[in-house]
Amino acid sequence: TWANAQQIKEAVFALFGVKAINVHTIMTKGEIKRSPKSRQLFKKPNSKKAYVTIEKGKKIDIFESLKG
């Protein structure tokens, strides 16, 4: 199931400890592709993107935490 904007706000706070001010979500349709060998059509899955605005002066250090 897809998360709504309120659930995304709560998840950002739970994971990163930063308050989200605004969340914009966009649904994208999956592309229809054709297999080069069999020439059959297949559809990539739909996806959902979320653009999150956080408080001014705050940062999400996701890449710093991955460095170790």
Automatic annotation (TrEMBL):
Q: Name one GO molecular function term.
A: structural constituent of ribosome
A GO biological process held by the record = translation
In its keyword annotation, does this UniProt entry include Ribonucleoprotein?
Answer: yes
Signal peptide bounds: none
Chain segments annotated as transmembrane: none
Which keywords describe this protein according to UniProt? Answer: Ribonucleoprotein, Ribosomal protein
Pfam families tied to this protein: Ribosomal_L23
Instruction: Give a GO cellular-component term.
Output: ribonucleoprotein complex
What SUPFAM superfamilies does the database record attribute to this sequence? Answer: Ribosomal proteins S24e, L23 and L15e
Cited InterPro entries: Nucleotide-bd_a/b_plait_sf, Ribosomal_uL23-like, Ribosomal_uL23/eL15/eS24_sf
Q: Which family does it belong to?
A: Belongs to the universal ribosomal protein uL23 family.
User: What name is this protein filed under?
Assistant: 50S ribosomal protein L23
This protein's gene is called: rplW
